[in-house]
Amino acid sequence: MKQGNTTYESNPILDKLPKHLRQYIKPQNYEDYTPINQAVWRYVMRKNVDYLSRVAHKSYTEGLRKTGISIDNIPNMYGMNRILKDLGWAAVAVDGFIPPAAFMEFQAYNVLVIASDIRQLENIAYTPAPDIIHEGAGHAPIIANPEYAAYLRRFGEIGCKAISSAKDFELYEAVRHLSIIKEAKGTSLIEIEKAEKHIEHLQENMGKPSEMALIRNLHWWTVEYGLIGTLEDPKIYGAGLLSSIGESQWCMTDNVKKLPYSIEAARTSFDITKPQPQLFVTPDFAFLSQVLEDFANTMALRTGGLSGLQKLINSKELGTIELSTGLQISGNFESLIEHNGKPIYFQTKGKSALAYREKELVGQDVSQHRAGFGSPIGRLKGINIPIEDMSPRDLKAYKIYEGEIVSLDFVGGVNVTGKIVTGTRNLQGRIILITFENCKVTHKGTILFESNNELYNMAIGEEIVSAYHGPADLKSFDLLDHSLSTNTTNEGKEDLGELESYYKMIRDFREGKNTIISRTKVFQEIKEKYPTDWLLPIEIYELAVKSNEHTLTKSIEEHLENIKLDQPNLGQLIDDGLELATVKSLV
Fold first, then answer.
1. pTM for the whole structure
2. Which of 165, 355, 195, 188 is nearest to 272 (CA)?
3. Which residues are annotated as a binding site?
4. Helices in 160-278 by DSSP H: which ranges?
5. Is 513 inside any structural domain?
6. Among 20, 143, 257, 550, which has the highest number of CB atoms less than 10 A from its own CB?
7. Residue 489 domain-assigned?
8. 47 lies in which domain range?
9. Tens of pLDDT along 366-384?
């Protein structure tokens, strides 16, 4: 499938994705993964599977097999998709961090988004940047569990409708920036610390959390950092834990408090730059869906009203309100007028569109409403029956009829005066829109709209029943605003040419492609030319253990001990690697 200047392999599930989601997809470019990239994947997977087979939910190891994820090779997403389709899912490569709403909307279409880049060797234990270890080895295996997969899809459906705040976007950009510079070659510690402090400052000054902030908390404490089972004997299922060789061990200690999962998790914030001080334990996957529905009941998506409209105004983003008639108005909501705690008038700014049941109404597109859309809502003063419930006879009796010049006084002080041209009804026969000419709309003497040879469309609805992020009809707006970044997987390869060649030699030897090389000679050259590299000596050590080369294993052990003395922070990684060398089979 062609997307911009790139091509990716599609399938029936991906074919259903709307254009605004396809813009985030980029080719995986599997050939760009270097031998060091492959070694990083292999180390993390060997370490994780060895440990996680004991502490992760049983769906993890089962899911590795079902999704075709190998311990020895970075997964090829095209191969994964051939297997995932049997589960009703697909996977795509994307540009690292993408907006939270887009991330969740992919889930609603049963599509896993996978950042195709892989962490650098120096960040092997953990990186805040989305990478293929986190996405592929963390998220993908658990979707083999049907109950969890249903939760993930439902979360996407609800989450992509959550309303954000302007500060959410600022925080998203800051976290995205940190993830990029942490994985970029040559970034100074000063620059990283500055970015981390900026995130801390933003997190401390977010104000009242938005719906998106709250539901992202739920996502974090379940999909990313969730535990399942009992408080006394929890198992891991969250992708962040499954893909972090450091935190998957840390989280099982008494240093991390275990709390029963509940809707309170939505109000528990997290810091992406630090280990989590507490985690939530769900009794089973079905309970996740129960809490999600409880949370959805608090969202403007289901409550609408004045607060829902105000959330959209505060978000400064494209959103939709749905009236009690089913009429949907999409745009950037700018202002409202309220009366007795209820909205009686709303106004959008810029391109807006009207829809019914997520389908744009004919003649009510953005070309018709370029400068915005405003309308009163509620009941007429002195009339007990709302307009939407009036029969054709009622409408005629109140002069709300084609060709009539009317003056409609709404409760709260909004007045609409003009000549009625026509009305639009929904499938149930209820009137949802009245079109006027020579129309003036006022509120207590202030002009809100005055016809200037154009028609005026008045929305019909007693109340706002729903308010949510995004347009009602995706086709109404041009949502293509994302440019793909250049691929960074292979960045810096030219600086590591010789070292990469050594990694390739050992990889080829292990795979039986080149068995005539001297591993002892390779080790000696690595020791002399790249004395701080520890991962390749681990790989050579593993082969030496299998072939009972005691002299070589002894030399490598001594070399690695010296590295540990110079760089104590590598001690655990090296010790774990040596221990893994004696493990015969991990799956």
1. 0.87
2. 195
3. 134, 139, 224
4. 166-183, 189-204, 211-219, 239-242, 247-250
5. yes
6. 143
7. no
8. 14-165+206-217
9. 999 999 999 999 999 999 9
